[in-house]
Queue: 3 jobs
Job 1
Amino acid sequence: MKTYEEMYGKHTGAFYAPCDYNPILGAIGEIVLQVDDSDYQGDSRVLYKDGDNWGVLFFGWGSCSGCDALQACDSPTEVEELGQQLESSVRWKPQEEMLTWLYEHDWKGDYSWYEEETHKFVAKARAILHGFGVGTEEERMVAADWFEERGQVYEAAILRGQGTRLSS
């Protein structure tokens, strides 16, 4: 894990905790996909790639130092410790095992399954691990066609922007 200074720059004077998790997330590894809730508090879902391994990180964040771990940090050392905690929370697996996990995980049992962003993340992560890009409209349509040909209509609908929920 990088140091506070490497992630956020040199600290001088009174400490004010940063609000942006992205420097920490980027320090963990190569981000392939990130889907965040678009609210004042919520969850982030990140797909990482490291050589032949893929990692998934889900974590929640808040809007103030009372409900957000990063904003509650009182020093650069605490920010580094939080980064280490997030890094150790990444679930790493080889590609085929990660793809299996994305299909077999009990998503309905997860606290964030009610969020549309979780469904979008899972559908896009499945597409990426099947070898598709999802960054452009054309890439998403190719992936959607592939899923639809295999009867995976929920993934296809999400990638086309016509659906918001997976079946499981």
Job 2
Amino acid sequence: MSALGIESNRFIVISERAIADFNEAIRLDPKGALAFRNRGDAYMNKGDYDQAIADYNEAIRLDPTSALALSDRGVAFASKGTYDRALADFNEAIRLDSKSAHAFRNRGVVYAYKGDNNRAIADFNEAIRLDPKGALTFRNRGDAYMNKGDYDRAIADYSEAIRLDPKSALALSDRGVVYASKGTYDRALADFNEAIRLEPKSAHAFRNRGVVYAYKGDNDRAIADFSAAIRLDPKGALTFKNRGDAYMNKGDYDRAVADYNEALRLDPNNALAFCNRGRAKRNINDVSGSADIAKARRLDASACR
């Protein structure tokens, strides 16, 4: 069971069939811990975290020394945002099996979610020592270095993740983000282009490529990419805000306001969206622009300077 993986309809169909089989296995042998763990994995693939946790609980009751069941339950808790319970499970899994790269990597992911990037990196280091071919762990460690602003180490880790898994659109997109953060826009574009070629339904890659086009002053291409990202993920508040910014740069204030409206509907506490909507409104003589700017400053004192 991988941590916080991407679900798909195909997995859901497979999971339904698997659940039926595990139900029968459990009926025939209600003391089989492995069947409960496997059924928990199937529920995880469906996104039914509560039922997964119930099955992992039973697997652990039947086999308290199962590091895998503990680690999998930790993934389910992490997926629900219950990070402290997830950490407790990963700690116990590591106590039972100190060579579990799976448990170290997943614990590192939770530390990263909690903002403790140093602990996250330490766990990813150990997971890599135990399994030096784990592309996902290199990507996770790259994310933690990125969060710390250590761009060169992040690039090195993303590059290794890509070497191990050349079809990882996420690693390419993440490396592109780091290149963009360093101002290396052409290399960022190359990574986003390849990520989109590999995964043409990646809203993440389209949005990030749009940001780079905007940085380069190509607002038309930026808007095209943001529009593609919105078609793929219409609930992305940040993408609406980004497209609003591109329209602002073109002087199309009415469309900018419309995008900021949607960004704020999806994320009512987005200070930058309030700020930029206020500025766009002022450009079309809408007196409510001042109220937006005041609201932005209440949400974030550094906004709208």
Job 3
Amino acid sequence: MSEKMACHLVDMTVLHTSVSLPLGYLQAYAETDPGISGHYRFFKHCRTIDRGIEPVWNDIQLLIERQEAKRQVFGFTNFFWNRNANLTIARRIKQVLPDALIVFGGNDVTNQGQTLLTDDSPVDVIVNGEGEIVFTNLLAQYREAGADFQSVNGVSFKCPDKGIVTTDPQTRIDNLGIIPSPFLQGTFSDMSIKASVDIAYEFSRGCPFKCAFCHWGMATGTNIRRFSLDRIQQDLEFIASQAGHITRIWLVDANFGMTDADVEIAYLLADIVQQSKKKILLVANWAKNTTKRVMEAAQVLYRHGIINGVTLSAQSLNNDVLKIANRRNIPFNYYQQLQKEFATLHIPAYTELIFGMPGESYRSFLEGVVKVIKAGGVPVIHPLILLNNTEYNSARMRNDYEIRSRIMCFMKQGLSDADILISHNRLPYEEWLKGMGLRIAVPVFYGGILKFVMRQFHSMHGLDYGDMLDLLVRYCMDGRLMSHPQFAKIFLHYMALWDSGDNVLPTPAGIKENQFGHAHYLSLMKCVLADTALAKRLIDELCEAIAGELPEGRGAAFAEWAAYQSLLVAAMSQASRHNNHPIRTEFTASQLAEYGEVDFIEDHGSFRHIAIRSDYISYTPDDFIFRIFFGGIDTLSMFGAARTVLPMNTSSI
């Protein structure tokens, strides 16, 4: 028998994993065809894009040198964050192996033949839609010399005499059971699973919504198709048995918690995790219109330490904006009730908002942020990424709403880019840039170092949260911050990256080139928590800036509020550094009770000691800071007795 033909599958992922679910599906399904399994040998290359392309390219180059056959297949799974990296690797392959077949598939390249199949492109074939059946049919055709892909549904390809040819669409897979489990099939080695901190998984495919900003799995506006509960149980039990001590399962379903089956899976997963005695976290995309099912699933998962909180996906609270986006949220009074219920259950809940949606102004968006805050929520703001195949990215929408966008670095400079909206007919560029400042100001100031004083200014003086946030953004953007030079430098660097067209700027120490700001948020919080004396001066300066808006002056309690806020930051600092020594304060017991309902103090006459919450001490420093991001700390009572859930010991970015 002749040597098997090589089929390389490549996934440059944002996860820290050696296990790629898309690649596993492609191989597991293809190998159900004896004609494929008997003629192809599969090699999977899954690496985090954070490390660049060289590790993957070195692996591929070594395997190319070992293979005598010149006709080899290279399949790449594509999202907006890895298309450039994939193209770079594909060009290198064509240089050393001109006869190789380069196949691109995934959300970002579906229906993009006119853009990707140019004369100078290394890509030969694009898979349009779900890949398992289409890729298997491609391999079957390519096995024969002079293969004709016109008989393969669901592809676009270069044809010497016809130009770019696109065949009829491939019918969606209604019965997902025909795709073997790559976990149970042995497609992934036990070692690769054990070595992976992150593992992607799915319970279902499809999404009934048709939001203009989304192209979820190429299946928006479709019925939900589910894998069987028996298969899911076997997969989860296998993953738990093979995984390392700490593992994150990234659920790629569009709407977890929408059905009764999701609630059943939540109980099932809780049992599996409990029996495994491992720390397994689930990162989920929760149902768009949160229901009682979400509440029940979240409660059982949070109780067992499997989730860190729940996402309420609002995107905007402006009805006109939602109408343009083909989206309808739950009534706001129901949203407020859900916030109260989650708070009663002590489950952190944060609200996702997208800044820059057509129809939204800076001021209307800020009003939405304030609504979330007043309802007891935590706003998490994302820029609007114009994804391929979405309505927002259509020529009609770009023209009607005068949309302008810019290609910006997403993770790795030059390899991972995103097309980000920077203005439209209701949002001038200057206002958009200020919105990017708001994006980091909300978690740093409201969620982090000024939450208590902002609450006091609002309740005692009627200052609007939106006005305070806007003032703080402008104050820092204008370079007026003087008390904490490193804080000011990091904030201005963050803003300069968003304002930069080429994304090439000198990077302050400790900051990765990350346009989306997670590294900047961490660095801002770390530089505050590292030096509490300097933090106190920063808090005093920012409080003075806010107080300047008061016509009647700052009031007698102003200094006390600022001092209490500094005390909170000191407590955060100790917790982030695993220091469980009590915090010393000269606040009286009655003052502490008024602000934080503290009942865990030791009175020593002229001063008091306040205990630090024990489960916070279990967190890594980054975990603790992101815990603040998703909930905020505005009273010392949050440092009280430990919760009963398992402590978190891995990054929750």
